Amino acid sequence: MNIKFERIKKAEFKNKQNSIVLFEKISDDNFGEIQSNGCVFQFGWRGDFILPVVKEIDSMRFGLGVDFNFIIVDSEKKEIMYKIELDDYFINFIVIGNVIYIASELKVIQLGIDNFEILNEFYLPEIFDDFVITNDSIIASCIDNQTINLNNF
User: Fold this and answer.
1) Which domain of life does the protein's organism represent (predicted)?
2) What pLDDT does residue 152 have?
3) What DSSP assignment string belongs to the chain?
4) What is the dihedral sign for C-alpha 111, 112, 116, 121?
5) Are 6 and 32 in contact (CB under 8 A)?
6) With the C-alpha atoms ordered 128, 50, 45, 29, is the resulting torsion angle positive or negative?
7) Distance from C-alpha of 19 to C-alpha of 68, rounded to nearest angstrom
8) pLDDT at residue 122 tops 90
9) Model's pTM, two decimal places?
């Protein structure tokens, strides 16, 4: 799958034909589009300093996180397969095997890819900074250098 993300102007967002709107709110100040498998998906978000994170999950699906939203989109079916509204701002996500780790400011959600079941939730002692992957574990690193072991392989 080839995914291309770009920011667009509000006028382009409103006037683009044959695009699929993933989400938008009246308060959105920023707009973007994702091109995948010949389809155009559009969405809006609030924060000027925060860019969306868009990553391939497998050959048919991609994940998108921004603001308080995380979704999984099937680009062949042209539909949202999974959507979660987070308690705090989305930061990042990674895919390891058949599990997605979704990081917001103060929590990491472990989500099964096959059935979209929440496998675990890890509450962080400080704001999330990065994922660290070692030979035998996945670690959430916080901005104050505290770490939480998320999973043993």
Assistant:
1) Bacteria
2) 52
3) --EEEEEE-HHHHHH-SS-EEEE--TT--EEEEEEETTEEEEEEE--SS---EEEE-SSSEEEEEETTEEEEEETTTTEEEEEEE-SS-EEEEEEETTEEEEEESSEEEEEETTT--EEEEEE-SS-EEEEEE-SSEEEEEETTS-EEEEEE-
4) negative
5) yes
6) positive
7) 23
8) yes
9) 0.91
Amino acid at 54: V
Token couple for 147: 């770490």
Domains and CATH numbers, the chain: 3-123 (2.40.10.480)
80 is written with which tokens?
């949202």
For 55, the token pair is 């990553």
Q: Are strands 137-142 and 61-66 parallel, antiparallel or unpaired?
A: unpaired
* Tens-digit pLDDT profile for residues 124-147: 999 999 999 988 899 999 999 999
